[in-house]
Predict the 3D structure of the following.
Amino acid sequence: METFEAITSRRNVRSYQDRPIPDDDLRQVLEAARRTPSSRNAQRWDFVVVRDRDQLQDLSAVWQGARHVPGSAATIALIAPEPDEGRKRESIVYDLGQVTMSIMVAATDLGIGTAHSSVHDQAVAQQVLGFPEGYFCAYLIAMGYPADRPLRPIREPARRSFDDVVHFDRW
């Protein structure tokens, strides 16, 4: 798949085939994540990859929006240091948004569907994932092969029109 095709094919997939992701493909997605740009090249992230069914089930308790996690072939938890001030938090959140998109586009390129989830219960996340004090789990990205239909470019996405969103020179 070409980059633009991967971008236009990406959609939230919350129902997965019972099929593992090959290690080489998972490593390629993680390499895309690792290479994502970050503010001042700080790379303030770590990734915990969960494939164990019981652990995925436990992880889904971090938020009601994580109900799709137990059915995933793998879920990547994005871990970052707890910021000590607001500006640093904004920078970390921005960087985590970039790495999320890198993961999702790289997975789509391989025919792997993704869906993200916020993490509200940090105590559960820390217990399941084992990250150290001073860190937090920002997001989960569940991954697997779509159960319903393969990923392909979406002809008419549910998005505002180009002319409604794009402004040249001035609003």
The mean pLDDT is 97. The chain has six helices and four strands.
